[in-house]
Amino acid sequence: MLWVKSSSFREKIYYIIIALFMAFPVIDYILRDILPIPLISSLWDEMLLAGGLMLVCIRLIFGSPRRSTRITKQIFVLILIGLAYLTLDLISLSVNLEGFRAVFQYMFVFFIGFYLIDRPEHIKSLLALAVITGSLIGLYGIYQWIIKVPMPSGWVDTTEAVKTRAFSIIGSPNALGSQMAMLAPVALGLFMEEKNLLKKSLWLAMAAVMAACLVFTGSRGAWLAFAGAIGLLGVIYDRRILFLGIAGAVAAVLFVPAVTERVTYLFTPEYMMKSAQSGRISRWLDAYDQMRNSPLFGAGLGHYGGAVARRTYSVPYTDNYYLKTMAEMGLLGVTMFFWLILGSLKEGYNAIKKLSSPGLKYMAAGMLGGLSVIALHNFVENIFEIPYLNTYFWLVAGLLASLPFAATRMGGGPVD
Hints:
By secondary structure, the chain is mostly helical. It has helices spanning 2-6, 9-22, 24-34, 40-63, 70-86, 93-104, 109-115, 120-146, 173-193, 197-217, 220-236, 239-255, 257-265, 269-278, 280-293, 307-313, 321-354, 358-377, 387-409. Helix 11 packs antiparallel against helix 12 (239-255), helix 17 (321-354) packs parallel to helix 19 and helix 18 packs antiparallel against helix 19 (387-409). The radius of gyration is 21 Å and the shape is globular.
């Protein structure tokens, strides 16, 4: 590997920290389900985050990397607002603190991705690790679908004929679908960037594996987010991507039975009635009503629509992270959160424009596509409630924002 041959010891340490984050779902599965270790199994990601941030602080104090981004300021502004929210309800301070951690902890991963990587080839290698990890997870999901692994009855409506949904080692078809939808554009970016025919074929094969697994998850939200991300890339980057995406989406709906049934069911009276009574539409309206009770500041961190509220108050998931944020933090909080998410996507788009190498542009476009998937999927799921997907989003956002600086440092040439 390039980083082993040409990197300093310091750069290798930085690389290893981020590589462990890229392997997050596999490490977490091993430590929690196969080889549980007291404290380590539940705190390993927090310890890794703390170690990475310590390295960032040391580098900023003594190394002073020559780079800056408005996203760091936006994150700090939102965190300060979150800290202010803690003072609004001191009676439920423990719940507030847990809610604060759930919302803001993973944003700090952005700083690790942005400040610790200086070489484009390191970024490529880290993305490759995430894609390989995702492909292996996806292969297992495809295997589950082929052998029709039993699934909980609540994963499909009783009127649907779906027999199984892939969930791999993740345990949730919606989370798995989001991961596959995020990493498939990244794999396609690596495919377009690659010059070696064998490696090019491998990246394309991995993208195909993750696309197939995405279908077998039966996650309509992930499908829609993937289609939306492809459409967004087509509009802002290359219209050919848009046309191919439309053709692929139409073909999937028309000729893939698993997609046809799940998508067409969305437009049936049965779905609309059940969704309005106790499904997504009902939970979205409840979140809106909760915001109306306290429109400016909301119910408080950890008090509505997420994992903390479910554990503490038995409140169901909102299945829309932005409405969950609106219910908990009011119009002020959700506005600032949107400001940060849109700022991250805009920074990714600006990174593409700053790059001169066509290969790096393709790689960056794949990263932006992956970020767009997560941002869009949060409209119909609480994707940021899933630690590894939240980590992936902010880590890739940081790496993408750092790519123009890394390319300039190395002369801006293509990655081999």
